[in-house]
Amino acid sequence: MSDKEAVIELVKHLPQDVTLQEIVQKIEFIAAIREGFDQIDQGQGIPIEQVEQIMDTWTTK
Asked: Is this model's pTM higher than 0.90 or not?
């Protein structure tokens, strides 16, 4: 699905009273997710074990 198609699908499912700011935030979120998937596809992701270690440091202080 192209970026344009993804945005069109997003807008179709939003409530009628959504604000422009909320739309922008949702588009930015989708863009970040897609960027992350692209990085993973290129082998640039972080292994889950490393993510778990990082998260452990957030909760154990």
From this structure: no
